[in-house]
Amino acid sequence: MKLQGEITLPGDKSISHRAALFSAIREGESHFSHFSGNEDCASTLSCLRALGIQHEYDNGRLRIKGKKPQDWRQPSEALYAGNSGTTTRLLSGLLANTSFETVLTGDVSLSQRPMERIITPLSLMGARIESARGRLPLRFFPTTGLKGIRYVLPVASAQIKSAVLLAGLFAEGTTEVVENKASRDHTERMLGLPLREEEGQRIISVSGDFEVPDISMTIPGDISSAAFFITAALIIPGSELLIKNVSLNPTRTAFLNILQNMGGQIEIETVREAPEPMGHIRVQSSELQNVEIPDDVIPNLIDEIPILAIAGARAVGRFRIKNARELRVKESDRIKVMVENFRRCGLQVEEFDDGFAFCGPHKLSGARVSTYGDHRIAMAFTIAGLHTDEALQIDDPSCASVSFPDFYSTLESLIK
Ligand code: S3P
User: Fold this and answer.
1) pTM reported for the whole predicted model
2) Active-site residues: which are they?
3) Which of 75, 251, 277, 296 has the fewest beta carbons under 10 Å from its own?
4) Which domains occur in the chain, in start order?
5) Predicted confidence (pLDDT) at residue 144 exceeds the cutoff of 90
């Protein structure tokens, strides 16, 4: 069995969320093609609909008509963000500044995730938000207007950065977000926000009179979804794969550099630089060696760590992830869940507070894997299962739809 062929992937999830949210606050109509049809982006669209934002979605094409949050409609019931942290945190930056009360809820996983990380800066700006001890549901009360702040991010997080900047769009004065470690930059890039670098820090600013531009575009394919196929092609002998028109945003491609450093034969061709970089990736199966993964790139490959670890298990030498405590507060506790599932597959893994380590290469054995409802765990272990002698069972494969509803059929189409 090998993987062979050419694919294009659904639109990038992070860019699709932002496409919808940024167009929803701009007077007028915006158009997108290749908008992601996954469950998370559907949550963003359904929250926006409940807030009075009209849109039409058909097979990747999105037409959306926006207006200022002050003119949004009060929803008749609580907004439901499903499993989506990005919907919750980015939308919160806008709900902080409406003239009505709103409640924001989510599924069991989202309801366990920390929200004080956005409540704190938004409250400093003057927002009135009630939460269940820093968790969902969040209740937003009307305010008489927010004030700009300078906020140094306590953790590298594009979601916190974006929530503060979105609130800053409608606040009095200037809002500055200071990053010590770069997180994904779609928000500042898509909105065209001023950015400066001072003593190793990135400072992004926005003022309350900022005019949101028309960001209509063709959304590049999802690079985080591509990671599963890239890894599969690298570890299955005889594979060759071409992924076309995928996002090559440099704050998202750190895992490609790591895999190349591991000996992965990956060729990258950029075909577009703006508004979001896009290009083609060609992959050939390769012998892999584990390499040190530097701390400063962790925020730029945080979503790819589960699948990178599957590549690490096939590679020679020690695979180690450190300084990645954020993994514990993703859709599942990804440190605990990776360690637990690897151990079930016969791999000896060391668990740290902020990561895990093991020695490769190791042929994983078949086992029953628990996803804890986490899409990236389901997809990562599906790829691992292509390589086991006994069947590797995934307890809840359908949760892949959170980011990639056609994951299994796309994978099947490549298996020769
Ligand atoms: C995202 C940012 C990341 C990432 C998430 C999507 C975004 O989260 O893990 O899947 O679109 O802004 P953090 O910003 O909390 O690290």
Assistant:
1) 0.98
2) 303
3) 296
4) 7-206 (3.65.10.10), 221-414 (3.65.10.10)
5) no
